[in-house]
TrEMBL record:
Pfam families: adh_short
CC annotations in GO: membrane
Gene Ontology molecular function: oxidoreductase activity
Domain of life: Bacteria
Entry keywords, A to Z: Oxidoreductase
Entries under InterPro entries matching the protein: NAD(P)-bd_dom_sf, SDR_fam
Annotated source species: Pseudomonas helleri
This protein's name: SDR family NAD(P)-dependent oxidoreductase
């Protein structure tokens, strides 16, 4: 039941997060929306009056995330669901390896999520049937070309959430990971990155929202790709590397 749930959704200004916001608002949820770009959040609050709490900010800034948590606490007193969809994807050029790319990815995809979790947990503890959701990536199933920064950060986030699930089970807080494969979003507009089987963001968002109601440990899609990556992960490392090279050459680029 989504109607009336108090949900904090990050990454709500574009891509999967923006589509999830529309989907959840249409189903009657109350949403606290975060992103740095205010315009799309305001547009949603105007389209769904009374359902939206605007909590914009830069999630890589620990203090800003604490303030967002305080604003939600003052307005609602609790949260029923937190969906951390904010994230960035930067590819690594190994011929000119730049550690700052890794730093930026870890900062946005991992550390920022940990700031959100710090702010969210006390509110979830006061919520109804609390649910913590983090968007990771299918890339963590096996090593992919140029995905070192994104993959390292999302693997860290995966471990953070999976180990939190163990501790939070005692408190009745469910934890779900969302692992997209290929989704058409703003960051994937380059026609060279066109990949067969890529889902539109609206389809991905509808699927995630529908699946989250069942509170699975993980939501994975597109399933065909995931089956392939899981199979890859069972193969010897030298075979994995050879196949990853062929896969990314055929697809032009990895976009997990
Ligand atoms: N698209 C795919 O194929 C794919 C595959 C695997 C995983 N994912 C994951 O799915 C999630 C959504 O991806 P997407 O493709 O929909 O990306 P997107 O269209 O680029 O949207 C990313 C969202 O994150 C927000 N964000 C980024 N940095 C932020 C920061 N420092 N503070 C606050 N908000 C920030 C952006 O808002 P502002 O820029 O306005 O701040 C935006 O709303 C991400 O976690 C991504 O890693 C996507």
């Amino acid at each position: 039941m989504i109607e009336g749930r108090r949900i904090w959704l990050t990454g709500a200004s574009s891509g999967i997060g923006a589509h999830m916001a529309k989907e959840l608002l249409q189903r009657g949820a109350r949403l606290a929306l975060t992103a740095r770009t205010l315009g799309p959040l305001v547009a949603l609050s105007e389209r769904f009056p009374g359902q939206v709490l605007l909590v914009p900010g830069d999630l890589t800034d620990h203090l800003q995330v604490r303030e967002i948590g305080m604003t939600i606490a003052q307005s609602w007193g609790a949260l029923d669901t937190v969906i951390m969809s904010a994230g960035t994807c930067e590819y690594v050029d190994v011929s000119q390896f730049d550690a700052r790319v890794i730093e930026r990815s870890v900062c946005t995809n991992l550390l920022a999520s940990s700031y959100c979790i710090e702010s969210a947990l006390p509110l979830l503890r006061a919520g109804r049937t609390p649910h913590l959701v983090g968007v990771v990536s299918a890339v963590t199933a096996s090593p992919q070309r140029r995905a070192q920064a994104f993959g390292a950060a999302k693997s860290g986030l995966r471990y953070l959430l999976e180990s939190l699930r163990v501790d939070l089970a005692d408190e009745g807080i469910d934890v779900t990971l969302v692992s997209p494969g290929f989704v058409d979003t703003s960051r994937a507009e380059n026609p060279e990155l066109s990949i067969q089987g890529r889902w539109p963001a609206s389809k991905a968002a509808a699927y995630i929202c529908q699946q989250l109601q069942k509170r699975p440990r993980e939501v994975v899609f597109p399933t065909r790709l995931l089956k392939l990556l899981n199979l890859l992960a069972t193969l010897p490392k030298r075979v994995q590397v050879a196949l990853a090279k062929r896969l990314s050459r055929r697809q032009g680029e990895t976009s997990l």
